[in-house]
Design goal:
It comes from Maricaulis salignorans. Keywords: Acyltransferase, Ribonucleoprotein, Ribosomal protein, Transferase. Pfam families: Acetyltransf_1. One of its GO terms (molecular function) is acyltransferase activity, transferring groups other than amino-acyl groups. It is globular, with a radius of gyration of 15 Å. α1 crosses α2. By secondary structure, it is α+β, with helices and mostly antiparallel strands. It has a 7-stranded mixed beta sheet with strand order 1-2-3-4-5-7-6. It has one domain: Gcn5-related N-acetyltransferase (GNAT) (Aminopeptidase, 3-Layer(aba) Sandwich). It has 4 helices and 7 strands. It starts with a strand and ends in an 18-residue tail after the last strand.
């Protein structure tokens, strides 16, 4: 596997992020929806690259001492190669650096690979939302405590805005 590089990005990358999201999810978020979120000062956008190709993305929201993973996706051709874990680790480090002590997320009960990643990386289930997703599946609500120093063991530094 080639090296994955994760970079923090701004609203001008909403189109790229929407393209990745459309390869990962149905229904997917549009460029306009992503741009609107990215214009909020509490939102953090990440793009993952393998060489010149974008292989994944994530959006986080950080407010006060809490963060929420809004979405994370890895394009199908690059799944199972560690990109998701690296994006997740970088997002956790960024959230902690912005003062978040805890990170929350929802994951479909049908998404076994994502559930496995989250449980493997220290998330715990704290709730469940019935029929949360458009396909009728339930969402597990997960939480993870973040370190207070802005760093997480094994995380990679995030490159400043690239665009």
């Amino acid at each position: 596997m080639s090296t994955i590089r994760v970079e923090r990005t701004g609203p001008d990358s909403a189109g790229r992020m929407a393209q990745v999201h459309s390869l990962c999810f149905q229904p997917f978020w549009s460029e306009g929806e992503i741009a609107a979120m990215m214009h909020m000062p509490t939102t953090v956008g990440l793009l993952a690259w393998c060489g010149d190709a974008i292989v994944g993305m994530a959006l986080y929201r950080v407010a006060a001492d809490e963060a929420e993973l809004l979405t994370i996706g890895v394009v199908p051709a690059h799944r199972g190669q560690g990109a998701g874990a690296q994006i997740l680790a970088c997002g956790e480090a960024e959230a902690a650096a912005r003062g978040a002590a805890r990170l929350f997320l929802e994951v479909s009960t049908l998404n076994s690979s994502a559930k496995s990643l989250y449980l493997r990386t220290g998330y715990s289930q704290i709730g469940q939302r019935r029929a949360y997703y458009p396909d009728g599946s339930d969402a597990l609500v997960l939480e993870k405590a973040l370190s207070g120093d802005g760093q997480r063991s094994g995380s990679q530094p995030i490159t400043p805005f690239s665009e």
